[in-house]
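EI: anyone free to look at a 429-residue chain?
SC: sure, send it
EI:
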Amino acid sequence: MTAPLLISELYKGDYSLMVALRSQLEEIARTPGLVTVLIEGAPGTGKTTMARALAMARVLSMVDAQYHRLSVERAAREVREGAALKWYRDISLAGLTETLADGQLFGVGKGVATEVGARIGIFEQAMTGCLDPKTAKSHRELIADAGRGDGDLIPLVTGGIVLLDEIGDLAPTLQAKLLRVLNGEMQFRVGTEGNTDFGFVFRGLVALATWRDIDGECHIRDDLRQRITQHRVRVPGLSEYPSEVRLQIVLSVTEVVKREIRDELAHIDQLVAADGTDKNATVLSPEWLQQVNRSAETKLPKPLAMKLAAIDWSACGQLRGLRATLRRVLCGTDLDAALAESQAAFARSRKAIQGESNAERFKRYLANGHSLSDAWFSDRHQWATELLGRLDLDDPDLLRIVADAGRTASEIKKELRNLMRSGSKSSGT
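SC: here you go
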């Protein structure tokens, strides 16, 4: 079985942290049927990479090697480089409206609404291997396609793997729907309810990722929280890895960044060729092209790699900060300057994330005796939707704020719903 070898290749080291992490991932990967895993960690620590590692390890555990023909080296490379996997799909739920998230997750039937085309959701895409999400084919037809001729049976065997990133942003009604998925109940695309030709039961692995505290600030209903925490894995920050592992991470990320630069050059070549421009014509600046080619081929000096490995990347956004810094360094920027730029960018993003929350703004308006409509024009539907969802879930913190202001929850809910109904008529909405 090559799955443990893959996990060991991606998460190396004999330290207790790494041994425990590998043991968790191997157990999850070899568990058949519908499995859920909660992946926790700070932004940029590699939660998506871990989900992809589990997706690949599940294949290596369940599928005969003569069928998938994946070596451990190739499998690890595809995980690190973000290669497309037919049996894996991911989606970030951050910022998605309830309607959009519903369609993205579960699909939309043909003729549901004017100018709305049929599509399948990511659960069906992962479990059938369908590469065309804008299809009106029934689920039965997609399964038949996967098993016919040159079809790929890996999605059917594994059940598919789906990563739902930022699970704390999922709307309350969709939390209930997701719970039914995780309980093995039949699901339907929007507008096809009851038609079993379009019904599907997901039997694969569902990974859920968040950087928030799932037991505290994440507003998730209790029964869903209990269901998704059967397997719980925390992705370590870069500084938690042993020094040799950090060095290997730096070298691996360097190769990924260099490949991205080469891919961008190839993309420019394709655009030039498609435009019919003479390939011998001077389109790109020779100096710029020379610099970019040099950055794509430069070998990172070991002293510099070791220096990068010793940096505390928590102040730069973990792996994202490392990637951004490496790209600047490879393109000729001084390390200290590149590091300062990455730190500044991360600080700006954290300031935005850690700004006044909707609950804090809600408390401030009620405490000052303002109408909720006073806040409407700066926050609109997202503001009202979050508060209404949390009140519907009987969020104790918000209920306490309402009571302290001498108001009732039903009164606030009515006001929020009125705002949401009338908001589309307001100027600029």
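EI: Residues 49 and 82 are 8 Å apart (CA to CA).
SC: 👍
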